[in-house]
Specification:
single chain
Length: 56
Amino acid sequence: MLTLQMAVAYFTQHIEKSFWPVVNGGELAVAICFGFLLLVFTGGGAYAVDAAHGRR
């Protein structure tokens, strides 16, 4: 859901100037979008709640 939210933020706020994030100032929105997308496919790992629960 957060990936979609950041993609919508990029396309509604930054796309008006140019498509490329370097030109239109949307680098942070794109980086966060891909960061959340990475978490979707790789999981939380050591920072996940279930991993912390298993250490008790």
